[in-house]
Every structure is written in C-alpha cells, then in structure tokens.
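Incident log, structure service

09:12 report received: a user says their structure output differs between two submissions of the same chain.
09:20 pulled the input from the user's history:
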Amino acid sequence: MPIEILHEDQWLIAVSKPSGQATAPGGGIGEGESLQELVAAHLGARALLVHRLDRDTSGVIVFAKDAEMHRRLSVAFESREVGKTYLCLVQGHMDAMAGEITEPLRTFGSGRVGVDPRGKEAVTRYAVQERLRAVDLLEVTPATGRRHQIRVHLYASDHPVLGDTRYGEDRPVGGASRLMLHALELTLADGEGNAMIFRADPPEDFNAIVESYRGPSDAGA
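09:34 re-ran on a clean worker, output below:
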C-alpha cells in the first residue's frame, strides 16, 4: 500500500493515514502492514512513533527520524505545545454553534473510555462548520490528548461521531461505512524551532458521506 507523504525533511516525516489502517504494529487487530511499518520501509530506517491516531481515524500523523527529534516531539505533545485540528460529522445538531466540553475521562480495563469524575482532565473545543440534514460537521480542537477523547466527549454530549463502532447507541452510528473523524491539521515546531503546519484534506470516502447529508433540511429541523 503506498503512503501519502505530506512533508519530509531530515528530522521527521508527516503522512496522511487512511481510515482502517493501524498506526503501529501489534494489538492483534486486523490484517496488513501498519502505517509505521510502511513509513519505515519508505525510509529504509526506523520510523519513531510520536503519537497515534485511532485505527478508524484518518489524517495527519508524524514520525520522527532520530532519537533527538523523537524526544523533542514527545515533549511537545506531552506539554500540549502541538496544535491539533480535526473534522468530524456528528449525529444530530449541537446545542450551540461553538463550545467546549470539559468532562474528565477515565480508561477502564476493557480499553473503553468513559466520563468519570475520578478521571483525568480533558478539554475538547468545537465549532459547527456546517449544519446538514440531521447531522453537524464540526471542526474540533482538543486541548488535551486523552485516549478516544473526541469520540467519548461527543458521545457523552448525545452527539456521537457517525460511523463509530464503540461509542453510540446504534453502531456503527448512523450506519456510516467509516468513522467520520479526520485529523485535518497538525501544528508543531521543526528541528530549528520554526512553526510547521501539516494538512491532510479529507479523503474521498469522508467527503462522500458528508455530501450524502447535504440537501433540503428535514421537516422541522
């Protein structure tokens, strides 16, 4: 499977991950090579994992080329110095055109994440980009990086992400053929401290599902 390279320099490589592909090997789920393995094959060297995207999430992801850049990027992610912007399509219409979800999140033994007052701080900001038939297209900027954060926060707000097979009453939510969550942009500093913005436009399968909800509004919407 070819990889879509967004940027490559002596320090790092940014690529666009398709929905359905694992970020890293292991875990015993699915078949085929992980993105990390494909990037390593392209480089002919190690591709060092800095952050992850859920298997069914598409979009921007970066790998470090050496230990020093891996350290710098890891610190940047942990210190919340990396800007992350996602697009997602959610069931129903949000109560406000913009807002912030701040429910604490806890990971349980099953790997499932839920809202829990004993959980860790989690902050997700959103803005409605387009109001469609029975769904909203959101731009989401997580201020924290908890496991499944966007998906759980939106589910807890009664607006699960379409296509979600874990968080929703009907699964996949809305019957969508893929998880409608896409990592649109990533902003970070390069090896010399300069700001870099990596962007992956939504793929065709994402756009096709969005388009299917465009048209006359539902009666009473």
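09:41 both user submissions now match this output. Likely a transient worker issue. Closing.
09:42 reviewer note: The chain has four helices and twelve strands. The mean pLDDT is 93.
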